[in-house]
Write a structure and sequence with these properties.
single chain; 221 residues; mainly alpha; Arc Repressor Mutant, subunit A; Tetracycline Repressor, domain 2; 12 helices; 73% helix; globular
Length: 221
């Protein structure tokens, strides 16, 4: 990376990090782009050079992670299924979830904050769905083959990701964060992917017991 590209990356990261701090402190709808620019020490026009909308500021990390998921599937080893590659990348780190098992309270505070801010903003909820749809479309394009089949496969994989995100969100906002949450979510994810691997033909006829067992009560209502 050259000096110019490095400077642009540092500026983009500073703007995104500053925006996130303000959103967490005040709520998404109470913060303007002008306030983000002032706090980051740049002009408002500079913010829009890097981000098209205020919602893009919040979801920059989700968008980047989605790109990583797509590339992991596109660059999977020969003989590995798209599902296996997506599953492997999705559970590679688990980010904040895995950090919850330590003694530091900050990961849980951050997890609560991000989900509280999203839950409190219809604009962010709509943007989250848009981001996931874009990731699914990008994944379908990289899968190739029959367009309908590629889209069905891609968006089925994204549906597992979104379902796990909502599972965690419901648990966190309800104050229901048991020890080993990352392992419980991973187990639920494994069962969800198993449903896709086995095919959907028998779902409904035989019920959802296998999937529900993996939730361990987390987020279940």
């Amino acid at each position: 990376m050259g000096l110019r590209e490095d400077k642009k990356k540092r500026t983009r990261d500073r703007i995104a990090d500053t925006a996130w701090t303000l959103f967490a402190d005040r709520g998404f709808d109470q913060v303007t782009v002008a306030q983000v620019a002032a706090a980051a020490g740049v002009a408002e026009a500079t913010v829009f050079n890097y981000f098209d909308t205020k919602e893009d500021l919040f979801f920059e990390r989700l968008d980047r992670y989605g790109h990583e998921l797509v590339e992991a599937v596109a660059g999977r080893p020969a003989g590995e299924s798209a599902l296996a590659a997506f599953r492997r990348e999705l559970f590679a780190s688990q980010g904040l979830l895995r950090q919850l098992d330590g003694d530091d309270p900050q990961p849980l505070d951050r997890l609560r904050t991000v989900n509280r801010v999203i839950a409190g903003s219809p604009a962010l909820q709509a943007r989250e769905l848009m981001s996931l749809t874009r990731i699914g479309d990008a994944l379908a394009a990289r899968l190739g083959g029959d367009p309908l089949t590629a889209r069905v496969v891609a968006h089925s994989l994204i549906a597992v990701q979104r379902s796990l995100v909502l599972l965690v969100r419901e648990a966190v906002l309800a104050g229901d964060v048991p020890p080993g949450l990352a392992d419980r979510v991973a187990a639920a994810g494994a069962r969800a992917f198993a449903v896709l691997e086995d095919g959907l033909g028998g779902v409904g006829a035989r019920g959802f017991a296998a999937l529900e067992d993996g939730l361990g009560g987390v987020g279940a209502r």
